[in-house]
Amino acid sequence: MAEHLEIANGTKAERYALLTRQIEAVVAGENDLIARMANVASMIHHTFGFWWTGFYRVEGNELILGPFQGPLACTRIAFGRGVCGTAWREKRTIVVPDVEQFEGHIACSSASRSEIVVPIWRDREIIAVLDIDSCDLATFDAVDQEWLERIAEILSH
Ligand code: SME
After folding, report:
1. Of residues 10 and 49, more confidently modeled
2. Which atom of ligand 1 is the closest one to the Cα of 68?
């Protein structure tokens, strides 16, 4: 209970620091990647109250929907398509302050205004992406990027 209060009241970096410790503990007890993704999506989502938080897994030449929290989402995204496919192709995190300004953005929900997509690496290959959507503009910045990249690393190792 005290930890939840701390999460609710701290700065964004403090909330990520505590969340990351909790994720480390949860991941240490489970090797299965899908099970890990399911709990990590839930923990991120409910810590910050994002609109949509989830994973797309690399399968051949497309991304396929994995564990997520939030409303219904599109199930398959081709390499290079949308923010997710672009993060995969460019092998980097993409922060989108305003989805209407990102050409090719795939609108799974019209409520989504800003987005971050973080590649998940294993053995020098991208095996999935973490995608988070917010109903507000410019929700994500360098603090989110730094911590979410750390969480992505913990998840896949
Ligand atoms: N907006 C993403 C698609 C996935 S949904 O947001 C859950 C994109 O452009 O890749």
Report:
1. 49
2. 7
